[in-house]
């Protein structure tokens, strides 16, 4: 595996302010990694509301099952995340582990076990022994403190080459509220698989059903619009916690997703989700280039997204980008295979602002030299206009390099 | 690009007998390649019936358009195939080229232009100048002879590392008939794309509608069950020609797909299609291992095939095979993401005959050493039993190696 930091990593990390009502602790449980933290606990004040979205895999991990079961309660007091073992495809043992962890966490935080949320990332198929870390939770809950967001981002990394943070401060009514988010990305060591975890918290007083609507809509154009290799994890988990602590400072309680006062908050939340999602793409295995794929003129937005994902997941498009090859023929191929309405003779393709194909053939003004120069950039924009309607979508991916094959093909050691 | 022959190439090539009623010529037209043949003509006796299946791409090549237009006539007298240029996404120029070629071929063979079939493979988006080769067709039609099947296989190669042949001799009624097939596979040089071409001919007297039914059914479990990289070409073409010459030797004329005398012929044809399809997989870019993926116990055969393709197209499964890593967790992941009915706790997975996972967790008898030894083989069988029904499907693919990325990421020279 590669240990060098991705060339696409952010030049600097944001300063993560505390979120009132959220306390954080990390620990070295030694689940798989040595000499680094691999356990994260977040403790939430009473009254914290929660929303979540999860993998659509038919083979979800045991922690995903537990989160799904606890989510309808809408209330969260403790989050426990471990790296190094995904507790996925572990049968009854996996469930026993999540039950034991929820039990230990509920004692530690003094809450119901239905107010505990869990996530695990790492090797799958390997039983996760709860005895390795449950004894640490009581002490973690006691010593947890608000300022440790940077440590939280580090404890959940697997083969990520950098921790991923985002923060926004925004007016709710006339009160400033803060939103913090962390994520881990598509890091893999055989036999791990890409597990995308992200946790977002705010002090805004927003009810769980409203949070859920914000989160479900917000992911469509952010986390659900990125792809590293088309492989969906068993463990994808995105949780949003709202402590409500800003109510004491005058922030209005929001119980209706249509409340106009939510507008700025929604925008800020979506910025965080998009920022974290793009950081995940930029840290895709072996990634050297970020690729933004926009499809316009499709029959519908849904159709546009399907075509965009067909382009973004095409190994031929991704290897061409890795090779800095302005191979627009492969974009045409990926449009053609998407199974969505398309008409060869109305199709146009751009790399950046350079139109390379128009109305079913190479653009008469096509310049190989100009396009090749563009392909040398770190960030490549591909656009396909289908010419049939007004459907539009943008998705993000990274290139496919030999390093990806090396990271995922090297034998387990 | 790699020029070494695939390690999965057949140890020996079959002797290809002539097919009565088919004459073959090849030529060096210099369309793109130098010092090798790049033009193939097959001339068929009057009365030859034809069937075809083509890419489902919404951006098909101009020759695919022409074949689709001529197919309803059911009659074929000449096939012209060039390598080095796919004549795809070439707009009106592309159509002018196919019309000029069909015109020249019809004069050469003394037939209607609707009895001409064309295929092109190679670079896309680059206009194909018919003047480069149409003047050769008259001479080719004149000098064409039956024994040149080996030359036919070579003239259609692009970056294939070996030509692909298959032949069967089988009883139709009480008369021996012969079926020959050639194919070109997933060879790519930037900016080419995978173009799968295959041509099959027989002397059996079988009517076009019957041929079409045999071909459409036969491809489902052969050509439509192989995948190298999930990218569908703009040019995929499979044509089946029946000269009917065996009728003179007593073979019965078959006008009904339900004719019981077709049974052996159907089996032999399917063997040819499967043989050629597997040769294409074994010559996938960078391939070092063939992978057979079987899904059993799915809700339906359609569902089984979708899950099998999800496994076979997963970059994580394919890199694990390349790394000789018995990473069954990635098979579980691919089952989970397929979007088909599946139940984690009923799922079992085998590598070869070794059951590695059972009922939602690692098999209690799992042996890392035994499974790792199996993964060193050239030919890997993966099986997933979904445990929900009786749907079954098998598909074939190859591993994903650094060589694939090199072949497709190297800049156009």
Automatic annotation (TrEMBL), chains A, B:
HAMAP family: ArgJ. It comes from Mesorhizobium australicum. Gene3D superfamilies: ArgJ beta chain, C-terminal domain, L-amino peptidase D-ALA esterase/amidase. It catalyses: L-glutamate + acetyl-CoA = N-acetyl-L-glutamate + CoA + H(+); N(2)-acetyl-L-ornithine + L-glutamate = N-acetyl-L-glutamate + L-ornithine. One of its GO terms (molecular function) is L-glutamate N-acetyltransferase activity. GO terms for cellular component: cytoplasm. This is Arginine biosynthesis bifunctional protein ArgJ. Belongs to the ArgJ family. InterPro entries: Arg_biosynth_ArgJ, ArgJ-like_dom_sf, ArgJ_beta_C. The active site is at residue 195. Catalyzes two activities which are involved in the cyclic version of arginine biosynthesis: the synthesis of N-acetylglutamate from glutamate and acetyl-CoA as the acetyl donor, and of ornithine by transacetylation between N(2)-acetylornithine and glutamate. Transmembrane segments: none annotated. Its EC number is 2.3.1.35, 2.3.1.1. Substrate binds at residues 158, 184, 195, 285, 408, 413. The keyword Nucleotide-binding does not apply. The record marks 194-195 as: Cleavage. GO terms for biological process: L-arginine biosynthetic process; ornithine biosynthetic process. Keywords: Acyltransferase, Amino-acid biosynthesis, Arginine biosynthesis, Autocatalytic cleavage, Cytoplasm, Multifunctional enzyme, Transferase. The keyword Nucleotidyltransferase does not apply. The record marks 121-122 as: Involved in the stabilization of negative charge on the oxyanion by the formation of the oxyanion hole. Heterotetramer of two alpha and two beta chains.
């Amino acid at each position: 595996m590669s240990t060098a930091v991705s060339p696409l990593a952010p030049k600097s990390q944001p300063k993560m302010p505390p979120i009132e009502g959220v306390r954080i602790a990390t620990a070295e449980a030694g689940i798989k990694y040595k000499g680094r933290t691999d356990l994260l606990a977040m403790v939430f004040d009473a009254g914290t509301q929660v929303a979540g979205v999860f993998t659509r895999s038919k083979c979800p991990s045991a922690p995903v099952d537990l989160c799904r079961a606890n989510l309808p309660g809408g209330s969260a007091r403790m989050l426990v995340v471990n790296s190094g073992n995904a507790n996925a495809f572990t049968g009854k043992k996996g469930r026993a582990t999540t039950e034991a962890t929820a039990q230990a966490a509920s004692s530690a935080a003094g809450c119901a076990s239905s107010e505990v949320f869990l996530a695990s990332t790492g090797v799958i198929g390997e039983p996760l022994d709860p005895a390795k870390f449950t004894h640490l939770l009581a002490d973690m809950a006691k010593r947890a403190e608000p300022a440790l967001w940077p440590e939280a981002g580090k404890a959940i990394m697997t083969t990520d080459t950098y921790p991923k943070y985002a923060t926004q401060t925004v007016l709710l009514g006339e009160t400033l509220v803060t939103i913090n988010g962390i994520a881990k990305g598509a890091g893999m060591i055989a036999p791990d698989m890409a597990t995308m975890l992200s946790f977002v918290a705010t002090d805004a007083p927003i009810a769980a059903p409203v949070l859920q609507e914000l989160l479900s809509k917000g992911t469509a154009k952010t986390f659900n619009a990125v792809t590293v290799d088309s492989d969906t994890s068993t463990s994808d988990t995105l949780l949003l916690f709202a402590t409500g602590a800003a109510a004491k400072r005058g922030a209005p309680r929001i119980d209706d997703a249509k409340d106009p006062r939510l507008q700025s908050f929604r925008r800020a939340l979506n910025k965080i989700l998009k920022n974290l999602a793009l950081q995940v793409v930029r840290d895709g295995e072996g990634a050297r280039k970020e690729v933004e794929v926009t499809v316009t003129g499709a029959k519908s937005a849904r159709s546009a997204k399907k075509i965009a994902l067909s382009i973004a997941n095409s190994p031929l498009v991704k290897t061409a980008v890795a090779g800095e090859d302005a191979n627009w023929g492969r974009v045409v191929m990926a449009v053609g295979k998407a199974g969505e309405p398309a008409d060869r003779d109305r199709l146009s393709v751009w790399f950046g602002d350079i139109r390379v194909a128009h109305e079913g053939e190479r653009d008469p003004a096509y310049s190989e030299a100009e396009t090749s120069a563009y392909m040398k950039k770190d960030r490549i924009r591909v656009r396909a206009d289908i010419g049939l309607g007004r459907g539009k979508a943008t998705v993000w991916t990274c290139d496919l390099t030999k390093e990806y094959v090396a990271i995922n093909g090297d034998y387990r050691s």
